[in-house]
Amino acid sequence: MPFTIEERLLGDIVVIRTPRYTDHRGWFMESFRADQFAALDLPQDFPQDNHSRSTRGVIRGMHYQHDPPMGKLLRVISGSIQLVELDIRRSSPTYGQHVSIDVSEENGRIIYIPPGFANGFCVVSDEAHVVYKCTAYYNAAGEGSVNPLDPALGIAWHTDAPVVSDRDRAAPSLLELQSFFE
Q1: Which CA distances in Å does 151 have to 107, 124, 146, 148, 154?
Q2: Which domains does the chain have, with CATH numbers?
Q3: Is residue 115 within a helix (H) or strand (E), and if so which, with residue range?
Q4: What rounded mean pLDDT belongs to the chain?
Q5: What per-residue confidence (pLDDT) applies to 167?
Q6: Contact criterion met (CB below 8 Å) for 56 and 125
Q7: CA distance 36 to 41
Q8: 133 has which bridge partners?
Q9: Closest among 148, 141, 12 to 87, alpha carbons compared
Q10: What is the per-residue pLDDT across 153-172, written as a single tens digit (0 to 9) for each?
Q11: Among 13, 19, 22, 163, who pairs with 9 as Cys (CB 3.0-4.6 Å)?
């Protein structure tokens, strides 16, 4: 089976690896196979794909969707990011904790983020293209966010000059968050 689990973080975030087959032309890899995800007890139904392009220092996040709950299968197809996942499940023993993961075209990591985590990333290369599959359709009325610059989170973003949207900067702090995940 080409897909393997490299590690699990905060209990439920899964770092997935798959081999790259390299020759004089470049490389090839499988980025998703439903049968192998099923064997690893990971979701196989992803009705929506998204793609974002950002430049160095951009922080996107910390976003989540609670209605319907949305998980994401994320990878970087060009460039490099610092991916940050924040546990917002109130009954979780890791509630309020975050993990930082380096994800890049070069390292080929694929990350599964289940519902109950607010996720964001910081671009650490000149430019990054991030693609992610979603376990639910986007619903603007069911989304939320946490301010990525909230000092209480203790996130050491990999930039000295963060570029953050007005919407993300105005998002509630973790203490102000109304959690929809138990």
Answers
A1: 30, 21, 11, 9, 6
A2: 4-169 (2.60.120.10)
A3: none
A4: 96
A5: 96
A6: yes
A7: 9
A8: 49, 73
A9: 12
A10: 999 999 999 999 999 999 99
A11: 13
CB 93 within 8 A of CB 123: no
Give kind and range of the element (H or E) at residue 39: helix 34-39
Please give the full DSSP string across 56-97, using - where no structure is assigned. Answer: TTBEEEEEEEBTTB--EEEEEEESEEEEEEEE-BTTSTTTT-
The Cα 49–Cα 72 span in angstroms is 9
pTM, full prediction? 0.95
Distance CA(166)–CA(77), nearest Å, equals: 27
Per residue in 24-63, pLDDT (tens digit) is: 999 999 999 999 999 999 999 999 999 999 999 999 999 9
Which one-letter DSSP state was computed for residue 181?
B
Active-site residue set: 63, 132
